[in-house]
Amino acid sequence: MIFFDGVCGGCNRFVDFVIRTDSRREIFFSPVQGETAAEFSLYRNEPPPEWKIAYIDENGVHEGADAVLLVLGRLGGLWKLPSLFIYLPRSLKDCFYGIVSRNRYRIFGKRETCRVPSPEERERFLP
Q: How many domains does the chain have?
């Protein structure tokens, strides 16, 4: 399960990429603004600039750069190569991810409303 900022252009592009690339259709999605994220108590009391993409797998909750890199590894194929950056020091990954995350609306744009999945995608999205 990937939790993403539903109004962030970059987050939505990442979700689109994962949908196209996940041939096994095993990764599901939910906006941070949704009910499912609230059930997991993700970012409930944090302002949007502090939100990070989150990925939940059989090993727990992963946030930020680790979440992105683990998703890439799960996609397999050549996407496993960039996932090797998971072995970089956490401080370096968090620094880079933090810069992008804090500026994501300026870099990627911001939508007025959360992403609405197409009928084909709907089964992979939780509220």
A: 1
